[in-house]
Amino acid sequence: MVHVYNCHPFSSQQIVQVEQEPGLICCGGGALFVVATGGCKVDAFSVEKEGCPLICRFATMGTVKSIQHSKMGDYLVTIEEKNSATYLRTYTNWRYQAEGKARVGVRLLGHLLRGASVRGGVQMEIIEIPLSERPVAVACCSVTGDLVVGCESTLVLFALRRQNQLSLNQSQQMLQSSGTNSQQSSSQSPGQIVGSNQNFLDFERSVILHLPKIKPKQVALCGRYVAVQAELEVLVLKLDTSSEPKTLEESSDTNKTDHLEDQADFQVLPRHQELLGDRAKDCDIPVSVEKTGLEDSTGQCTLSYVLFRRFTPDFFQGCSVEETQLHSLQLYPLFTSNQSESLEEPSCIFCFFSLPSAGYLYSVKGGVELLSAYQYPEKVLKAVLTDHLLHVITKSALQCFTVRCAALAARNEDPYIDTTMKACPPCSLEVCALRMQLFIGLRSVCVYGRHVILLSTADAEAPEEPERTPQRRGLELKEHTLLTGIFLAVGIDPATTPALESLLSRPFLSRKWTISSPKETSTAGHGWNLYVVDTVSPLTLYQEMVEYSERYAETNPQAQSLRHLLSEAHLLIRCSLLQTSEQQRSVEGDSALSLQTDTDGPAEKQTAGQTDRQELEEALRQNCAQLGDCFSRASQKDCHLALPYYRMSGLSVTEITARNRPLPSSPHSYGPGFLFYLKHFLFEETEQILSQEAADEVIDIFSKSEPSQLVSVCASPSLMNISPAQTLQILQHLEDKAGVSVPLTTTMATMMLRLDDMPQYTHLMERHAEMLLVYGFIEEPRLLLHGGGGGQHVQTRPTALTRQLAKSQPGLLVAAMVALHENNKVQLEQADHIFKALGCENCLQVDFWEAMLMASSQETLIQELLFRVASVYIDRVTNTTSDTHTNKPHTPSRRRPLKSADDLINSCSHYGALYPWLTVLNPAHTTSSHHQEALYKLQSLLCGPSLSVGSIMPLMERLSEETLWGFSLHLLCATRAGQYDISIEKLLDRCPQAIIAYANHQLQDKHMVLWWQKLLPELCNRTRAAADNSILLAALKETLVVVAMETSPTEFLELMPEDGTASYFLPHLLTCSQRHLRA
């Protein structure tokens, strides 16, 4: 479907004064090139100046059959005929003819001019390019300036090379010193494609493609993409260079060729076919690459199929089957503003081709897809694709269609499009036709910038036409009806305009229904005109579209046409913004090519460009606001698009709310798109805080539209300024209607807290058990914290309720934070920040870590928490030793922990029961309770299975072994490290009364041998030195009892000291012998 809007894309037109009837036209570089019918002369006119003055005129070497201009290199390429032979020639430095320089150099491809021709200065050059086949079509690449020539069965690609004066002189010296065989290769040395100030251009044959089953009618080239068009077929190929040698498959299907030759007397109609991407290689058109000898320097050339489209001949009004042929093939590049100037690869490449009845626009880079299909109201002779519009001509009108190039380019440039951040109308958006411009006998069209050049020739009727046959009268009546319908479709009634009615009735508007093959125009004196029609700027056309859309907005704000028209306006502005930088570079480049003096300096141009971009950006913001309004009341299918468009508009929530107030017809109805935007704004963490008036309006909106969302809305940090009394009334009404719920009760308690009504706050908080309150906080975490948003590095802050819970219900707060962490509602670092903001980093934060150790099952997190609590315990036992006998008031950091050491030992597997021998080392009531609690927790951690002792050893260096409790901690670390020998020695030195308890607990299983290998010898030696030490003697006696039970008599005898008293050891030896005999 094609929408039709009565927007006029044309601003003015002027007629180019041409002396002879034009036969061919083309444009580029700010110039219009006109070739007279059947002549050998080219006139160049300036389309950028009023009146299109003549720039220069130069003769060609033959009759021009085709002419093209290349933006890169600023040269012309022609297909000419002379003496029944066809030639391909290029014309470089043609602008120097404007200065009256008559000198022209003629040379062959690869043979640069030398001698006097070069020393005389720059001059126009005609380069003849020899070909083995007759050229049929030619095209230039607008990106690189390369050439593609379509012959009867081949495509030949030529690379543009540039030579400056210095390199040319060096080349001449090489030519003089080299032989004849090396002369041509030296002159064809490749150069770098740099700025347009180089004087000498040349071409180098790079690739030859053989297509035996297709006869080219038109060709196109853009970067690495090559397109060829036959009568009813289009094939797009991509050329790449590879360093790896690859054997190209030569497709020579001789059997099929012979079969077709046998059926030469039959007309075979091919079936319709469309193959995209990798499927295109399945077409029946083989392509082979001929080596040119340059593969060693440029790499092996490989090709891949991109697109193949074949049409079946069909009838169309006004043309026969033979005339149903493709035309207007284009490969169109589109650069975006974020690309650097040196980047030659376009962001997007589009392929356009057309039938008389329909046109097709494909994207061929980065995935092949059909963007748009254009259905024409009448037979189209030619079409030209541009950035913003598609210009088509019929025999009697110029019409413009919108294009979808910007929609695809925007998505390639910005990855945030089609997200909640940004939006853009889809590439599949239906196209629209704008108001047409009537002409007489249009024949050709070309476009440069905002200038559309039209060539019209009016066929003169016979002087005395005989009486029309009934068939002719019927055809003219049908034609009058068709044109009348076209005018009515764009909103123009011919019956109300006598001049237009008279124009439609004139005989020169009639067209023939059977068209013969093209023939030469008679020289008997037909009329012609060459028009330059200027299109309005995209911003002006956008403004007209906006004015046009206001008609729909007044009658039906939800009309599909309103949304479509605003989407068209959006793409116009977006395309201008995408191409602002590229267009400026293009205009500057084209201006540098001309010899005219520009009075405006670079600063003025830059300022004007910045002003234009600011106007475009402001227009885009206005358009996004209008699209947001459309989608805010759209159906559930599209209402989500209101969010990104409103975001792109830059409007505040207050402004958007004002735009979406209910209509008088439905005072309590808000659009689903607006509610979606509002919820997204409120539920995500933003720094924008609404005023009390705006916040109260938001609460009122949700109380009427979605009361179930009120709890989440009230918890939003953006609504900090809501009126608590008014909100409390709304929440109480909701509770009466929907029933009691934990999140609703907590929200009401928060309002009471803001009203300083502590009795009611306490009453509401005591409605539910603490565990149910924890579940309520999991359902709505923002009751406790703001600013998290689920991100790990986003700053969080506590709410007023959180601060109150820290004072009155710290256990509930810790349990809630643990539950939020375990349910991925808050990260550990964010929870730490909350407790630090509360000033509880040395109490509630440690309680939170201890509770996390009981709840978490993540090993990495557990080790992190164990290290943190161990660090805190070490810090506490270090800093509280001096406070043993002082009576300082209890500060918040001195608050009693939520869990004691015994609680942690009983409920957390990471805390182990204290070893029995620690009771001997731990002092009784010699330190403060805080110190005693921290010591027990640290000892319990060291007695547990999870803490890695090595991780806290650097921290243990802060603890001195002078105190008994410090010694116990170092002894625990040494024991956990397996240093039993050292531990036994230290324990005997500091606290021998604990040695038996230590040995009974630690020296078991594989460490049992230490009883007689380490402990017994140590005790013997120490009692020998201190025979009256009753503690050592008792320990020795206990040790001998264990040794006698674990060793044989022989081993026991070997362990007895040589100087020992026999009577002391004999009872133990007897016990050992009796046990051995019983065993």
TrEMBL record:
<feature type="region of interest" description="Disordered">
    <location>
        <begin position="171"/>
        <end position="192"/>
    </location>
</feature>
<feature type="compositionally biased region" description="Basic residues">
    <location>
        <begin position="887"/>
        <end position="898"/>
    </location>
</feature>
<protein>
    <submittedName>
        <fullName>HPS3 biogenesis of lysosomal organelles complex 2 subunit 1</fullName>
    </submittedName>
</protein>
<dbReference type="InterPro" id="IPR029437">
    <property type="entry name" value="HPS3_N"/>
</dbReference>
<dbReference type="InterPro" id="IPR017216">
    <property type="entry name" value="HPS3"/>
</dbReference>
<feature type="region of interest" description="Disordered">
    <location>
        <begin position="586"/>
        <end position="614"/>
    </location>
</feature>
<feature type="domain" description="BLOC-2 complex member HPS3 N-terminal">
    <location>
        <begin position="3"/>
        <end position="164"/>
    </location>
</feature>
<feature type="region of interest" description="Disordered">
    <location>
        <begin position="880"/>
        <end position="899"/>
    </location>
</feature>
<dbReference type="Pfam" id="PF14761">
    <property type="entry name" value="HPS3_N"/>
</dbReference>
<feature type="domain" description="BLOC-2 complex member HPS3 C-terminal">
    <location>
        <begin position="540"/>
        <end position="1076"/>
    </location>
</feature>
<dbReference type="Pfam" id="PF14763">
    <property type="entry name" value="HPS3_C"/>
</dbReference>
<dbReference type="GO" id="GO:0005737">
    <property type="term" value="C:cytoplasm"/>
</dbReference>
<dbReference type="InterPro" id="IPR029438">
    <property type="entry name" value="HPS3_C"/>
</dbReference>
<feature type="domain" description="BLOC-2 complex member HPS3 N-terminal">
    <location>
        <begin position="192"/>
        <end position="473"/>
    </location>
</feature>
